[in-house]
Amino acid sequence: MKAPESIPYSMFVKYSMQGNTKIEYSYRNDCSEETQELINNNFTEEIFVQSLEKIKKREQNYYGPTDTWMYEALEKYPVDGKHVAIFGSTHPWYEAMAISHGASKCTVIEYSKRKSFHEKIQYIQPHEVGETKYDVCFSISSFEHDGLGRYGDPLDPDGDLKAMENAKNIIRKDGLMFLSIPAGYDKVVFNLHRVYGEKRMPMLLSNWDQLDLFGGYHGMFTNDTNGVNGSPYQPVYVIKNT
Q1: Residue 51, pLDDT above cutoff 60
Q2: Contact 208, 242 (CB under 8 A)
């Protein structure tokens, strides 16, 4: 399978929010068989156990300081005994973080098929969600990809907003979401990710109660870079499904 390389002409105006969002291009084909095979190699008991050991030491993984902010958020808003849903996974790091912080069960909702390696973890595809209501959700660097086609998902300029609305339907009332997405100057880096600023961020968080923000700073929405060492700056929001 091949991910789309450019925005279709008929969708360009909507992706750019009627010209209010910057458009850049940086291509990845993460739905290819070769890439998915490499990703699937991460989902083993050995890598999960290694992740648990690193998390016990409060080490950082791929997203760097986002993990430190997640540790802080989980201390203040515990998930002990909760059924945690995780949106998207290319490495069992956040599965390990949920289990290590006392989650009773962890369900990962992922476009690609994954095999479980732990009795408390299950992997399902979006069409398999059903009527289950989850206590808590982790969405770490996930929703900013929805609708861009990078992972085999259908092109949709509002894919991220629809993903947030769908999350409300599967998280119980007053349930929490730990949300981390790239923050800075509003833009779409197609087909890589979106960056959320003063225009798009309020749209993403509408109909949720914002309880807390870890890693945020004054002026973060004026930053028009790709973050530190090319990795987007991604603070952690704690929001409630009201």
Answers
A1: yes
A2: yes
